[in-house]
Structure formats: structure tokens, C-alpha cells
Amino acid sequence: MAITRTHNNVLLVIFMIIGFTTMKVNMALGKDPKTPKTPSLASRCWGITNFIVYCSFYVSTIYPFFYEPNEKCCSYAKKTDIKLFCKRFVFGKEMIYSSWKVVDLARYCRNPLPKGTKCGNYIAK
Description:
It is a single chain. By secondary structure, the protein is mainly α. It has 5 helices and 2 strands. It is 54% helix and 3% strand. Strands 1-2 form a two-stranded antiparallel sheet.
């Protein structure tokens, strides 16, 4: 029994060493240098998650006015697929996120939606 545990631990260590030595991650940028130019759905979802975490105050329906977002919110708003965010999270009666605030925030942070794009009940101008 002890031999089996030792055998499993040795295999685990071998796989970890192989994993670390073959990993080609650019640590300065925090991503694989061979990443395709079009982001995957998973990376777009992570971008939307960060957008929600850092920008939900600015696009919330709770506050009646648009407040200028901070730098961290804008940095994530620039990286986020705003059209996908609108499609998945801004719809119907807009109980959580305000469509016009999302469009204004995207424009303010220099990631504007194309003219005519629908975000909830609001059409980008």
C-alpha cells in the first residue's frame, strides 16, 4: 500500500516538473504568447466578470445619474466585449443594469459600441 502512494506521488511530481518545464507562458504579460487574435469565449466571459466587478456601480439602475468611472473600471471596459455584455445582462425592464449607462460608460472609456447597436432598450448613437 505504501508503494502505491509513493508511486502516485512520484508520478505527480513528474507531471508537475513536465508541466512547469514545458509551460510557455509569458510571465510579463500573463498570457500565452501564441494566443490567437480573436479571444475565446472563456476569456470574453472573464472580461465581462471583471467588468461587472469593477463597473457595476457605474452602470447600476440604483443611481439615477451617470458618474465618471475610475481608471480600473475603464481599463476593464476597454478589454470587455460590451456587445456580449448587453446581449446577456441588459434586457427587459433593466432591473440591474441601465442600458444607457452601459453605452455611455463604453463611450467614456473609449470602447464605444457601433452606431445602431442595441443594448437593452437603448440604441447606441
